[in-house]
Amino acid sequence: MIQTLRRLSVGLVVLIVVTVISGADTVSEVFSPPPAGQIHVVALGDSVTSGSNCNCSAFPQMYGDLLQERGSTVGVTNLGVGGLDSSGLLQTLNQPNSPTEVATAAANVVLLTIGANDFGDHHDDVTSGQCTGDCVSDEFEQLTVNLDKILTRIHALRDNKPTTILMTGYWNVFEDGDVAARQYPASGRVASDQLTLRTNGAINDAAAADDATYVDIYTPFKDSSNITSLLAADGDHPNAAGHALIASVLLSATPNPLPTSSHQGG
């Protein structure tokens, strides 16, 4: 998710990823291919994926635990990076022999949560209600292009082998709940919600054009009796209950058994 102080350039995001592995001599010291027969889950995305401000087990590990209850051995690699946008993710997927590239190539389940940070430069414009016209048109166009390229790259890394790709939307691309109510006018909260729905639509469309699955997070969060109870104190990230809800929704969207047919794409 996005806040003004967390806007990172693509170069800085990649630097963070490289810094994480700087103590390792090779990629294999960071990621080892899963044993034969094991389901390997890789989680790609932003600070929602990484579990920022939760002090809890983030949803990818919760999801892996739930998936294992189906009777399979499951390994999870969480590569979520706070501040990551779709351009940054695409760059790391294209970085030769990077942990992201290697782990994705070995993953038969890919969890993908990306897009909120693409609109960071307009956070204040949107949440203040001052975003007149379509102030995010360029960013939205770039997001739609990047989502298609990200999916294409995942399939290429997987050599078109059977892969379950679950693409989550967002309950809000910016802050929500009591925090948003205190900080932003009603017009800003409406604008943020509209941008969220538009972003979710782009993610849904990208999934539909591929053989990926769009996973609706917006509805279960908004349908909760109190969305604040699902959020960390910053109002921007899930707390433990929010992560548990995301994991549960993801499990419900996961085929059982996992698909065995190859991707029929380029």
Automatic annotation (TrEMBL):
It holds the Pfam family Lipase_GDSL_2. PANTHER family: SGNH HYDROLASE-TYPE ESTERASE DOMAIN-CONTAINING PROTEIN, THIOESTERASE 1/PROTEASE 1/LYSOPHOSPHOLIPASE L1. Residues 43-245 form the SGNH hydrolase-type esterase domain. InterPro entries: Ester_Hydrolysis_Enzymes, SGNH_hydro, SGNH_hydro_sf. It comes from Kribbella karoonensis. This is SGNH hydrolase-type esterase domain-containing protein.
